[in-house]
Amino acid sequence: MQGLDRAIAVNYGLAVKNLVPYKDTWLAVTQQSRKILKKIQFSPERLKFVHGAKEHLINQGFTGVDRYINTLSAEPYFIFNNSVYTLVDFIDGRESNFENDSDVKKAAVTLAELHNASRGYIAPDGCKIQNDLGNLPSYFNKRLEDIKKLLKQAKKGTSRFDQLFVKYADYFINMAEKSVLELSASNYCRLAEKTRNEGLFCHHDYTNHNIIMDGEKIFVTNFDYCCYELKVYDIANLIRRKMRKCGWDISKCEIIMEAYSSKENLENDDIELMRIILQFPQKFWRVVNRYYNSRRSWSEKNFANRLQEVIDEAGPHMKFMEDFSRIFC
């Protein structure tokens, strides 16, 4: 932190009265207002893509974003001690609550408006473009192979986690294999090409923490992972996060689908692809992959409990998928 207040003064012409830690950023109190200072974990070239995406949204009328403040040299970042930093205005609001149906409905409408406004984005020259269009089949196959490979490792172990994994792996492997097959038979490639031609991008981290509500105004923050991608990625992510807070109650999914569709059209192919994404055992893969490849971050007991949660969700999730197919497909 030492010297950052001076760096802000030099790069933005702002006198910092106080600089304090705030979540994973810093809160900079200036004479004019409060700002958020953030250390960026990627290159300036990647940041230019994110900055361009935000500016495109604003130019299209979607102004509820944490817009980067340009430096005195008209850059959306500055370098301090070989690290990249950005500055945005502090948004004085509350994080959305996905247990609240009203908040989720507003989040779905806002997501549709974001996707609609994102169309036509042409990445600026000199930026590092993030494009995930066409990558879903390889992601599915890679994660399926990860599960199978880790299963061999689990069979040699004796922990409670190993035993749970071995006992229930076949169910989740079958689900993953089904998703891979159905994805290959879907119109995924057509949708990817259509999205590519539209120049539409996704937020790619559309969580309650990144949706700030200030009265009737909604702000979407943290575009660090935004990329060219199918809009159903964001929608499926929103649905999945809501479903885990309501026992996979299909009526709550209907709220999201109806709210999103009020602002942005969903084709039958979109919905079918969404179904396939929601079917893939993403959380199962994430938990077992993290256990065997980065297990230092959680305790053994915590990992086993997380895996048990995924297993306990299997029944409600299966019923949800049946209802989703019946209602939407």
Quick summary:
With 329 residues, the protein is an alpha+beta fold. The protein has eleven helices and ten strands.
Architecture overview:
This protein has 329 residues and is of the alpha+beta class. The protein has 2 domains: 66 residues, Phosphorylase Kinase, domain 1 (2-Layer Sandwich); 228 residues, Alpha-Beta Complex (Aminoglycoside 3'-phosphotransferase, Chain: A, domain 2), CATH 3.90.1200. 54% of the residues lie in helices and 13% in strands. The strands form 3 sheets. The protein has a 5-stranded antiparallel beta sheet with strand order 1-2-3-5-4, covered by helices on one side. The chain has a 3-stranded antiparallel beta sheet with strand order 6-8-9, with helices on one face. A two-stranded antiparallel sheet has the order 7-10. A hairpin with a 2-residue loop joins strand 4 and strand 5. Helix 5 packs antiparallel against helix 9, helix 7 packs antiparallel against helix 8 and helix 10 packs antiparallel against helix 11. The longest helix has 29 residues. The mean pLDDT is 96.
What labels would you give this structure?
single chain, 329 residues, alpha+beta, 2 domains, 5-stranded antiparallel β-sheet, 3-stranded antiparallel β-sheet, 10 strands, 54% helix, globular
